[in-house]
Design brief:
The structure is a homotetramer. In chain A, 44% of the residues lie in helices and 11% in strands. The first copy, chain A, is of the alpha/beta class. Chain A has an eight-stranded parallel sheet with strand order 1-2-3-4-6-8-9-10. Chains A, B, C, D: GO terms for molecular function: L-rhamnose isomerase activity; metal ion binding.
Chain lengths: 388, 388, 388, 388
């Protein structure tokens, strides 16, 4: 049995990027509930994100969404973040909220609309140079609601062309990560619905193009850790968007709906070389805290990832290999479950304290008074919102 | 083989209720696209609905949503509708858009919140008396996003109590129809997730309480026509909310995603006595036209229902019974498919013309100039929107 | 935080019934793999089951399947089991393996076939008197593969009639439990597809008729613990068939596919009064060990149920109620997760030792030499098989 | 509107390959029902297949399954088939029914087992030379039932190696088509679960390796026609296994569960160049007639494909393109639906008669007396069975 002590050093340096939009209000098509203290600016979002990093040491970067987080001076924003102890991370493009994109963006039949979407990505790349971001993440809302509404083949060809133009603009240290999504906001078809499509598209682009795997973007019953394995094997797993879901793209706290699935995912990440200082895989959250508090929601999330990473590292690989080779089904499964059922929370609390972090980050944040402070201070103005 | 002529008379009097909200803008959590000519008032929605009825003869009633369609004087609204050739139909309550309902309405732990939700339904019943509506439809957004967030049992008990109070307020000719929904907007659990729950709740209330079946509110793979059969058998099918879906609650045009499913549903409706002048079943649309034109979308929808009803009536029941009893699987299936594959559109066009209706309602509406007229006239003000 | 010591006494008396068929070979439609030592008789199955009970103390009863486990003298079988330290439990009927049932059994259009199926249940009731069994469990394979193949309504009516005749034959201490199943072996419709149908049928029968919930028999995304809650609330949860699944009715080891789901189910069982000496709920396994060893598979299964029961009992209900009432989403969820993440395995090992049971039942069985013994002894004859 | 006359010539030469195993008995893990007249030899299967071709003119080839259809002399078999008017088609390998494959075949950790599986494919290639078959179809049952049971990554690497060896053995005119399957018979993971995996594997092999798309092998909600489009675009759609399903891999008659889906698939086939004399796509059935008559089941199936092909060809592409480009959602969808709702059955009956085929193939077969003849003649011996 592997011990916590033997894997503790591997927990150093774990970093999970926070999405700026997780700190704004979010909701469903039915209702967005507002919360006191919700940020009104990207600076306030960064301040909130810094709280998460402050109590966990796990979240040194914040992903931006353009145009939601646009500012005049990105250099100043970079400094502002730096002063808070965090850095600016992945740049997320947005081609789903302008009226002109009603029938598509990078796939649109109208060359002018398509160019506008491409230009938006050029702008994002410019911002990346200013922010020092490595990754341009493209999640495409393009798709159709009715059979016949669009020509799926033509759209796919135009997508390839658009991506090619964007890819050509990347700097030498920059990457393009293409996210896939099974459904929503389009209902009949989405233009990048599965990992196969994302893979085929990025493989055609080149080495700097990778796949982004959002854990909530699959059909029911999909074995997600298999896809993790496959993309690592193919050298094309660029990043994770972590969250969890019961049915659709619920964007719940990662690990909340099915903790065992998160464990299995992390086991394959470790198995396939996706974890550690030399891994090309970026770990991000992509969540919406519709009914729960946002900052504690993010704290809970990064802790869940850390706890499952620890459990995944605890798997006794040698014993597992032996049991697998011997065809010992129950033995092999038992070795995996042993790691999953191990309660690592006490060890992690001690580990945190040894690094000057609070043993209980949730309690530390609650005791900090920050929530009351922002509720009091952030009055007036427009609260930021997921989707706005 | 049954002929169209022999079933034509059964198409008389078919009525599909239109939802007022189908004429407003709607969308996803990502974006609501606006359209020129979108109504700004319930009166404008009624005018649009009257267009649908005018070219199809199929949609003599319009369902209202409270508070979206609240007016000072319901008697005047009733007259206004009547002048347009339509009547006011089902009253839909709404307990999902006030901040106070964030954690529930009829199920809330806080007695004051719960009372407010009950009072809202009392108000709806008052409105029903003024509008002459028969049905109070309750779709409950109550539920939770995380395991442990709520006590499902306590919520169910409070729901029963709340419904009991509302039921007691119904007039002798009024009904309560309780809709169920598998998921959304709550992700972990919804308080009325399936027909079994709705049935158990309304069975406890009494004869005036029925189940509402929304065709988009089921788990993948669910045999919906079985539920239709069962609820008719139990005497508890009160109404349909028609729409179609590929994955979630897409609210697409009924029959668009799986026409054969709509056919099978109508076959069971006819088989179980749910169709015709003496049936207690109310047929309604509940759709959101996110990317398509709204009035033509509604025209297309009621035509789809009519076409599938005609096909369902064409099933040769006598031959089917014989094949079923004989264990002739392919024969029985073939009899059903014969009716489904029959192209009834020409016969229906002639049938319409015989009643002074346009042969091609879609073309007639397009030629009417109404769309251009409302686009020109309805400028300024706030466009109505699903969810607002 | 609730402690293990405070809940330990509630673990006394926990009993999980083993299915006799779990010890036979099983497989898929593609292949059944044979294993050395597989029982050839019901006596050998009972001997294997006694091994499970011997090392866990959790499995004092064995469910029989008729006709698979038919014997001449049930009184002798009862004594034989008693000598092994186990008792005979639920009687499972079988109307899916005779050629005559190709198109149905209790629902068949042919009165003679239907009578034969009813008579089979009468025989099962006679056997129950001889074995001292309390429950007659009916899982019905009836259904159709193609739309139109059968008349779903007529089938449902005949089912009600058949069940009524069977119910009338029950002794005063006997119960009928009706299992539902979403799909398989019928593909288009099954005659008891959901809890609502099973509930409506047993509610029409009377107090001695209850619902059996098989955890593998639901559509994707179904919230099973909600159904547990609802059936307990309605007083109609008769028994569980425990197993787990990733997609279809995989019949895997309970807790193997989604341990957190099993936990949530046990939480609702405890919450709703379904656990403990006065509960009417019978807990059974219904699994097929296709590729893993069968006796250790059963040991692992009952241990999984015990471990999750312990975790469910550890939930701090008082704190949970407070957090739920306060609308503290993360707090309430955290209280639940605290119990789930608690590693109870050490405490349970000690608890077992205190009762003269092995600390590690899996290891104890492996060390016992029983597997080698049966592999050597049980040569020749026909191995029993699930489905035969 | 496109007319039948204008597309009739494109129906010439349509060919759908029949699977030899469709004529044998098949069933579920619960029961296989036997039927009078079921073939006992491959010769009898070919005779049955020839009946299907005889009345439809659509099924000139029969796919074989090795070892189920092994014979001493393939040249003689080829002549035998030729005399019946049919040819031998795709060779299907089988590595799922030997005990040695319990834990895998082409992916097995044991080099000896893996070699045996590879050798089996070498044998299949030898047979292909003798039969004149073009395609070696590999459907792999490899997978695991429990997390941890196997090392998914190692298995994928070994699969790549095994496929490489098999590919190297192909003749210059031969192809390898790799089928993917979402689940079953393995429950936790399958080694080729999705089109992405199949595509990545065959892309690594070379031009003679293609993907086989079985319409029943996807997760719920999957847009299959999108995959058809994508594989055609990537030049890697090798063949179809046609069937239909409601939930799992039901292997029902193609078009039976969702006729509109079959239509959409054929629309994409035509759109992407997958139909016609120069297409590389092979069309096959892969069905199991568990409860319906087998020969009529096959006749019904090929007719369904033909009817949907005709409807797909009827789509007015020019008008559709215009509506799509104009963003006319309802117009574009309406053009598609016009083709789908067109009743082509009368035109096809006339078309058949013009070619000396019976207008109603189902009736012609029923009237032929063949069924009674084989029921009388084929007595004794072992009926062939799917899976045996």
């Amino acid at each position: 049995m592997t011990t916590f002590a033997s894997i503790a050093s591997q927990l150093e340096g774990q970093a999970i990027e926070l999405p700026s939009w997780a700190f704004g209000n979010s909701g469903t098509r039915f209702k967005v509930f507002a919360t006191p203290g919700t940020p009104r600016t990207i600076q306030e979002k960064l301040a909130d994100a810094a709280q998460v990093h402050g109590v966990t040491g796990l979240a040194p970067k914040v992903a931006l969404h353009i145009p939601w987080d646009k500012v005049e001076d990105y250099s100043a924003l970079r400094d502002f973040a730096g002063d808070l102890g965090v850095a600016l991370g992945t740049i997320n493009s947005n081609t789903f909220q302008d009226d002109v994109y009603k029938f598509g963006s990078l796939t649109h039949t109208d060359a002018a609309v398509r160019q506008r979407a491409i230009d938006h990505h050029f702008e994002c790349i410019d911002i990346m140079h200013a922010t020092g971001s490595q990754d341009l993440k493209i999640w495409l809302a393009d798709g159709t609601n009715y059979p016949g509404q669009g020509d799926m083949r033509g759209r796919q060809d135009r997508l390839a062309d658009s991506l090619g133009q964007i890819y050509a603009r990347l700097g030498s240290e920059q990457r393009l990560v293409l996210e896939y999504k099974f459904f929503e906001p389009a209902f009949y078809h989405t233009d990048v619905p599965d990992w196969g499509t994302s893979y085929a598209q990025v493989a055609a682009l080149g080495d700097k193009a990778m796949v982004c795997l959002d854990t909530g973007h699959h059909a029911p019953g999909t074995n997600i850790e298999f896809i993790v394995m496959q993309l690592l094997r193919l050298g094309k797993l660029g990043s994770f968007d972590f969250n969890s879901r019961f049915y659709a793209d619920d964007d719940l706290i990662v690990g909340a709906a099915d903790p065992f699935q998160l464990f299995r995912i992390m086991v394959e990440v470790v198995r396939g070389g996706g974890y550690g200082p030399n891994s090309p895989v970026a770990f991000m959250l992509d969540q919406c805290h519709n009914v729960e508090d946002k900052i504690p929601g993010q704290i809970r999330s990064v802790l869940n990832v850390q706890e499952m990473t620890a459990r995944a590292l605890l798997v006794d690989r040698e014993a597992l290999d032996a049991a697998q080779t011997a065809g010992d089904v129950l033995g092999a499964n038992g070795i995996l479950m042993d790691a999953f059922y191990t309660d690592v929370r006490g060890d992690l609390a001690a580990w945190r304290e040894g690094r000057g972090l609070p043993a209980d980050p949730m309690a530390a944040y609650a005791a900090s008074g920050y929530q009351a402070q922002i509720a009091a201070e952030r009055v007036g103005g427009t609260q930021s919102s997921w989707g706005a």
